[in-house]
Design goal:
5-stranded antiparallel beta sheet; 5 strands; 164 residues
Length: 164
């Protein structure tokens, strides 16, 4: 009796839902980053930069990287540079500028999306395609493992920065 229950469960797990599952379909999403411009104090009488210019320079560096550095399984389709905006930071008692960048990206898998959302500059994500995603147990396990791996690497990097 127990054996028949296990075999029926296995059959149900292996069922494919053709209307919901599309093999080899790309994942398209829009992701927004806001690059922070930290003010650089002037040394002697020159060399200081405004926060807007620092934020814009940092965003331009990142745009060049997104355009020129190929990433396996990821293709940046479009880039949209937003207007630079300022926010008052009470901790340091200064205005800080942010330079937004929106990317439309197509990726081979959900795991490839993680490299975008674990960044400090990440603000928002919108999944454009597909309308629904069906994940198996193995896919969820791989996704959680990759998330853990990214977060551990980020934590180690931060600890090394603090110890310098």
């Amino acid at each position: 009796m127990l054996k028949s229950e296990i075999s029926t469960r296995n059959k149900e797990e292996n069922k494919e839902y053709p209307s919901e599952r599309r093999e080899n379909s790309k994942l398209r999403f829009k992701v927004r980053f806001d690059y922070k411009g930290k003010p650089r104090p002037a040394r002697f009488f020159f060399g200081g930069k405004k926060t807007e210019i620092v934020a814009q320079d940092f965003r331009e560096q990142q745009v060049a990287l997104w355009r020129n550095v190929p990433l396996q399984g990821i293709m940046v389709e479009n880039m949209d540079l937003g207007e630079i905006y300022n926010v008052y930071d009470e901790e340091i008692d200064e205005d800080i500028a942010f330079a937004p960048l929106e990317l439309i990206v197509s990726a081979d898998s959900l795991e490839d999306l993680l490299r975008f959302i674990v960044r400090d500059e990440f603000r928002r994500i919108e999944i454009l395609e597909p309308a629904s995603i069906l994940l198996t147990n193995r896919e969820v396990e791989r996704l959680l493992f990759k998330m853990n791996e990214h977060l551990q690497n980020k934590l180690i990097y931060r600890i090394r920065e603090i110890n310098r």
